[in-house]
Amino acid sequence: MAVKIRLQRHGSKKRPFYFIVVADARSPRDGKFIQKLGTYNPLTIPATIQLDRQRALDWLHKGAQPTDTVRRILSFKGVLYLKHLLRGVKLGLFDEATAMEKFTKWSAEHDAQVKKRQEEAYRNKRARRPQASRRPERKPEGGAGTEG
Fold first, then answer.
1. Which of 26, 50, 85, 118 lies 20 to 30 Å from 132 when distance is taken between CA atoms?
2. What is the pLDDT of residues 108-129, one digit of tens each?
3. CATH code of residue 57
4. Is residue 113 in some structural domain?
C-alpha cells in the first residue's frame, strides 16, 4: 500500500484550512485517512503550522511519501533536517547527542526568525491601519430651520 503525507482541505469557500494527514494514495483528497499529524492555516501571516514532529518522523521512516507542499511544511518545521541528522547517526558519522545538539541549535535560531517575522507582520499591519481620529462633535445649528 502506497502511503502519502498530504493536506486534507477544510474550511469554507475561499477560506482554506488544512489537516496534515497520512493517507493511502488511492483514497480521495478529503476522504479516509490513517492518522492526523497536524494542521496548516495559510491565511495567517506567517502561516500557522501545528505538527507532531515525532509522528511525522516515524511515518517518514516507514516510507510515507510527502506531497510537495507537505515536504515544504516538514522542511520548515525541521522534520526533514532531523531525519537527515538521524541518518548521519545511523551511518556512524556522529553520535545521537551531537545530532540532537545540532537540531536544538537550529530549532532555536529558526524560532527566533519566525518570531521576528511575526512581529514585523504585526508592525506592518498596525502601520497600514488608519489612525482612529475622533470625529468632531456636531453642534446643532441654532439659526434657520429650527422652531422653538
1. 118
2. 999 999 899 889 888 888 888 7
3. 3.30.1320.10
4. yes
Dihedrals phi, psi of 67, to nearest 5 degrees? -75, 175
Under 8 Å CB-to-CB from 22, ≥6 apart: which residues? 3, 4, 5, 33, 34, 35, 37, 59, 64
Return the C-alpha cell found at 22.
497520512
Question: Is 136 domain-assigned?
Answer: no
Boundaries of domain holding 53: 3-128
Look at the alpha carbons of 66, 15, 39, 27 in this order and tell me if their dihedral is positive or negative.
negative
3-state class (DSSP) for residue 68: helix
pLDDT for position 127: 87
Record the cell numbers describing residue 46, joined without a space: 506567517
Query: What total of structural domains would you count in the chain?
Result: 1
The pLDDT tens digits for 44-75 are 878 899 999 999 999 999 999 999 999 999 99
Task: Count CA atoms closer than 13 A to 2's CA, side-chain side.
Answer: 7
Is residue 119 a part of any domain in this protein?
A: yes
Show the cell assigned to 42. Answer: 495559510
What is the helix (H) or strand (E) element at residue 19, kind and residue range?
Answer: strand 17-24
> Considering the entire predicted model, what is its pTM?
0.79
